[in-house]
Design brief:
Helix content is 26%, strand content 29%. It is of the alpha+beta class and 795 residues long. The strands form 10 sheets. It has a 7-stranded mixed beta sheet, sandwiched between helices. The radius of gyration is 38 Å and the shape is elongated. The relative contact order is 0.06. It catalyses: tRNA(Phe) + L-phenylalanine + ATP = L-phenylalanyl-tRNA(Phe) + AMP + diphosphate + H(+).
C-alpha cells in the first residue's frame, strides 16, 4: 500500500519526526519498503483572479485575459483554455517562473497580443497527469499566494507491504491504531453518519449459496452528478497513492479502501432487476465486460446477479450492464465479506487485483456498515443526491468472532526473558483494543475483530512485544535443556557424511523452501494428497512438499536457462505427507535426494563428451549407501513410480523395507518442467536405517591376489543383480571380490541370451590360495549358477 505521510498524520500525529515514525511502522510488524520525498518541480506560480475575459479578435479559440495577482498592474495573458471565465481563481505562472521540464516563462507577443504569463493546469505543474484543464481554486483563495504553499505538496510517500496475516496494515486506520499504541495515544472513535431515508425504493439481497460465511449490505443513492470534478484534497491523496481515476465514484471507493481497508463496489442501479442474488455460477455461464470481452465461468465462481444476468464477481469485476458510466444517475453502493475459498477461485480465474488482495487478506466485518455510511456521506457531499436505507443479508452468523485466549503472566515473562509489570501489560492490551479480564496471574483476552492472526497465547505475547519495544528486551540468551534423541544424532551424522561423499563427486548442495507450487507438485505426484497453507506467502508457495524432487527440478530448470550444460545437485530436508496416525495428522520425514542432468563431463581434450545416464546416478547413490550400510542389504527393483520414466525407474529397498526411488524424469514432464531427457533423480528416507555401519580399519593382507574371469550366458529376462547376489552369497565365507565388468548380447546368441563378464578376485589374510582350490570353488559357483539360472559358460 502507498500513501502520504500527511494523510497518516491527519489520523494520528505523534510528536516524533518522520524517520522515527517510519521506524515505528516497521516495529509493528508492517514492513516499510521505501519512503520517497515528493517536492514540486515548479516555482514562481501564484494564485490570480481573472478580471476580464474576452475572445481574441482574430483567433476565436483563444481568449485575452486581464489577471490580478495582487500587484498594482494587471497582467495581460493569452490563453487557449475553454474553462476560463470572469472572477475565476487560477494558477498563474508569471514571467520568470519555472515549470517542470525546465520550462521558463517569458513575456512575448502571441498572435498579435502581449502575453505576460501562463494559466496552468495540474498537468503542467507536474501532478494529476490526466487533468489538463485550467486549475480553478475556491473563490475564497487569497490572491497572490504562492501555489506551492497553498497546495502543500511537499510530503513523504510511504510504501508498506504486509504479510497475509496482517490485513490491518493495509489501511490508514489500521496503521494509526498501531502507531497510537506505541506512542500511548488514542485515535478518535469513528463517528457514524445518519441520513434521512428519503428514498423508499430498496434492492433486496438474496444469498443462495452455502459458502462458509458471506455478509452483504448496500443502499441505493439516487440523483447524483457523476461528472463533477474530484476535490483537490482527495485528488492529491489518491495521486500519491497511485490510484487516482477520472471517475469520481471510483475515486471515493478507492479513498475509503485506503483509509478503512474496506472494499466497496458501485453498480448502475437502473440496470438491476428487483434484487441482487448471491450464487455460484453455472458451468460455462458467460459474463460480458466492457470492450466486448466475454468470460466463461464455472461452478466454483461466486457471482452477484439479478434474475436475468450477472452483475459482477468479487474484485469489482463488473459486467457491462452494471458498470457505472458518465450517464449514470442512480447507483447501488455495496459492501461484501466473502470467504477466502471463493476468493481463491476468482484469483485463479481472473488473476489478482487490488480489491481481491484485500478480500484475500481479510476484511473486518464490524466495519462494513461504517464504510457504506462513510462512502455515502462523501458521495452526497461531492456529487449530491439522496440515499435510501441499507439492505443487509448474512450467512453463517457470526461471520467472524475471535475466541478468548488465556495469557499467563509467568509464561509471558519467561518467553520475553524479563519481568514486565501487569499494569503495563494491561495498558498495552487496552491500547491495542483487546477486551481483557485480569485474574491475578493471567488475563482472558479477546483480540479485536480486525486481528485475524491472533489465535494462541504466543500471538498475544508477540503483539505486546511490538508495542513494548524489542529494544527494551534484554539481550540475555534464553537457556533451555534440550534432549536430542539418538535418532536425530544418527540422522545428522548420515546427512553430514552423505554430503561429503556427494560434494567430492562434484555435486552442489541446494536449499529450497519446504512450501512449493501445488501445480508443480500435482504434475509429479497427481494422485497424492497435499497439505495446503491457509496463509501462503504467494500462490507459488502455497503447499507443503511431499518430496524434494520439485525443488531440485526447479533448480535444474533455472540453471539450464542459464546455459549450464552439466548439473549435479543434492538436497536434504523434511517432507510432509498426510497421515492420520501421526500427531496433527501430518507425517514429517527427512529425505536425501539428488539430481543430475546434461553432460557427464565438461568439455575437455581428454574425455569424450557424453550424456549422463541412470547408472551414473546409481553409482553415486551406492557410494552413499555403502557408507550407511552393507550394499548386500540394498536391492533395486523395477517399478512404475510417479514422476519417473516407466522403463527407467526402480524402487530402493533396505532389508525388504522401501526407502526410496531412483530413475529418469518422465518424458511427459520434460517440457512442462523445462528439463531435458538426460535428467535423473533419486530420493531416500533417512529414518529407515537403525544405525550407521561402523568404520572398520584393518591391515591389508600381505598375500597376493588371484583373479579369475568368467563369461556366462543367461536369459535376457533374468536380472543381472540376482546373478551377482547369488555369486556373493556363494562366497560369503571367503574373502572374494565379485565384480561385473561386461554385459554383451548379439543376434548370434540363440533364445534371447545375454553374456555377463564377471571377475572374481581372491585374497586370503593368512596364506596364498592354490590354483586347484580356486578352480574347485569356481566350478562349484558355476554349478550353482547353472542350477539357479540355467547359466552356461560362454566359449
Amino acid at each position: 500500500m502507498k500513501f502520504s505521510e500527511k494523510w497518516l498524520r491527519e489520523w494520528i500525529d505523534p510528536n516524533v519526526n518522520s524517520n522515527i515514525l517510519h521506524e515505528q511502522i516497521s516495529s509493528t510488524g508492517i514492513e516499510v519498503e521505501c519512503v520517497e520525498k515528493f517536492e514540486s518541480k515548479f516555482s514562481g506560480v501564484v494564485v490570480g483572479q481573472i478580471v476580464k475575459c474576452i475572445l481574441h479578435p482574430e483567433f476565436h479559440h483563444l481568449k485575452v485575459l486581464k489577471v490580478d495577482i495582487g500587484k498594482k498592474e494587471l497582467l495581460n495573458i493569452v490563453c487557449g483554455a475553454s474553462n476560463c471565465f470572469n472572477n475565476m481563481k487560477v494558477a498563474v505562472a508569471t514571467v520568470g517562473s519555472t515549470l517542470p521540464g525546465n520550462i521558463i516563462i517569458y513575456e512575448k507577443i502571441f498572435k498579435g497580443e502581449l502575453s505576460q504569463g501562463m494559466l496552468c493546469s495540474f498537468f503542467e505543474l507536474g501532478i494529476f497527469f490526466d487533468d489538463k484543464k485550467i486549475i480553478e481554486f475556491p473563490i475564497e483563495t487569497i490572491i497572490g499566494i504562492d501555489v506551492n504553499d497553498y497546495l502543500s505538496l511537499k510530503d513523504n510517500i510511504i510504501t508498506v507491504s504486509v504479510t497475509s496475516n496482517r490485513p490491518d496494515g493495509l489501511s490508514i486506520l489500521g496503521l494509526s491504531r498501531n502507531i497510537a499504541a506505541i506512542n500511548n495515544l488514542r485515535i478518535s472513535d469513528l463517528k457514524y453518519k445518519s441520513f434521512s431515508k428519503t428514498i423508499q425504493k430498496k434492492i433486496d439481497i438474496d444469498i443462495q449459496t452455502k459458502r462458509d460465511c458471506i455478509n452483504v449490505l448496500g443502499r441505493i443513492i439516487q440523483n447524483i452528478n457523476i461528472n463533477v470534478d474530484t476535490p483537490f484534497w482527495m485528488k492529491k491523496k489518491l495521486f500519491f497513492s497511485d490510484v487516482l481515476s477520472e471517475n469520481i465514484i471510483t475515486n471515493i471507493i478507492n479513498y475509503v479502501l485506503i483509509e478503512l481497508g474496506q472494499p466497496l463496489n458501485a453498480l448502475n442501479a437502473d440496470n438491476i432487476d428487483d434484487s441482487i442474488i448471491v450464487r455460484m455460477a453455472k458451468n460455462k455461464e458467460k459474463m460480458f465486460l466492457k470492450n466486448n470481452i466475454e468470460i466463461n465461468l464455472d461452478e466454483n465462481i461466486l457471482v452477484f446477479s439479478d434474475k436475468n444476468k450477472i452483475l459482477f464477481i468479487p474484485g469489482n469485476i463488473n459486467s457491462y450492464f452494471s458498470d457505472v458510466n458518465t450517464n449514470t444517475k442512480n447507483i447501488f453502493l455495496i459492501s461484501s465479506l466473502i470467504d477466502r475459498t471463493s476468493i481463491s477461485y476468482v484469483i485463479k480465474k481472473m488473476n489478482s487485483n487490488k480489491i481481491l488482495e484485500y478480500y484475500n487478506y481479510g476484511i473486518d466485518p464490524l466495519l462494513q456498515n461504517y464504510a457504506v455510511e462513510y462512502a455515502t456521506d462523501l458521495i452526497i457531499k461531492i456529487c449530491g443526491g439522496t440515499s435510501g436505507s441499507i439492505s443487509k443479508k448474512k450467512l453463517n452468523i457470526p461471520i467472524c468472532m475471535n475466541n478468548t485466549i488465556r495469557l499467563h503472566h509467568k509464561k509471558l515473562n519467561k518467553i520475553i526473558g524479563l519481568s514486565i509489570d501487569a499494569t503495563i501489560i494491561s495498558n498495552i492490551l487496552y491500547s491495542l483494543y483487546y477486551k481483557l479480564n485480569f485474574q491475578e496471574t493471567f488475563w482472558d483476552v479477546i483480540p479485536p475483530s480486525w486481528r485475524f492472526d491472533i489465535l494462541i497465547e504466543e500471538d498475544v505475547i508477540s503483539d505486546i512485544l511490538r508495542v513494548y519495544g524489542y529494544n527494551n528486551v534484554c539481550l540475555t540468551p534464553l537457556k533451555e535443556h534440550i534432549n536430542n534423541g539418538q535418532k536425530n544424532e544418527l540422522t545428522d551424522s548420515l546427512l553430514n557424511k552423505s554430503a561429503i561423499i556427494l560434494i567430492n563427486k562434484g555435486y552442489h548442495e541446494v536449499i529450497n523452501y519446504g512450501f512449493i507450487n501445488p501445480k508443480i507438485q500435482n504434475l509429479i505426484f497427481p494422485n497424492q494428497k497435499t497439505l495446503l497453507l491457509s496463509n501462503p506467502i504467494s500462490q507459488d508457495m502455497s503447499c507443503m512438499r511431499l518430496s524434494l524432487w520439485p525443488g531440485l527440478l526447479k533448480n535444474i530448470s533455472y540453471n539450464k536457462n542459464r546455459q549450464q550444460q552439466s548439473i549435479r545437485i543434492f538436497e536434504s530436508g523434511l517432507c510432509f505427507s498426510v497421515d492420520t496416525t501421526e500427531n496433527l495428522g501430518v507425517k514429517q520425514e527427512i529425505f536425501l535426494a539428488a539430481a543430475i542432468s546434461g553432460n557427464n563431463f565438461k568439455e575437455n581434450w581428454y574425455h569424450k563428451t557424453r550424456k549422463m545416464d541412470f547408472y551414473d546416478l546409481k553409482g553415486d547413490l551406492e557410494s552413499v549407501l555403502e557408507l550407511i550400510c552393507k550394499l548386500n542389504d540394498i536391492k533395486f527393483r523395477r517399478a512404475i513410480i510417479s514422476g519417473l520414466h516407466p522403463e527407467q525407474s526402480a524402487s530402493i529397498y533396505f532389508k525388504n523395507n522401501l526407502i526410496g526411488a531412483i530413475g529418469a524424469i518422465d518424458p511427459r514432464l520434460e517440457k512442462k518442467l523445462n528439463v531435458n531427457s538426460s535428467t535423473f533423480l533419486f530420493e531416500i528416507s533417512l529414518y529407515n536405517f537403525p544405525d550407521i555401519k561402523p568404520l572398520k580399519i584393518q591391515e591389508i593382507s600381505k598375500f597376493p591376489t588371484i583373479r579369475r574371469d568368467v563369461a556366462i550366458l543367461i536369459s535376457e529376462d533374468i536380472a543381472v543383480d540376482n546373478v551377482m547376489r547369488k555369486c556373493k552369497q556363494f562366497f560369503i565365507n571367503q574373502e572374494v571380490e565379485v565384480n561385473l565388468f561386461d554385459i554383451f548380447s548379439c543376434k548370434e546368441f540363440s533364445n534371447k541370451k545375454k553374456s555377463l563378464g564377471i571377475s572374481f578376485v581372491f585374497q586370503n589374510k593368512h596364506r596364498t590360495f592354490q590354483d586347484n582350490e580356486i578352480n574347485l570353488m569356481m566350478n562349484d559357483c558355476i554349478g550353482v549358477l547353472n542350477k539357479k539360472f540355467q547359466a552356461v559358460l560362454r566359449k
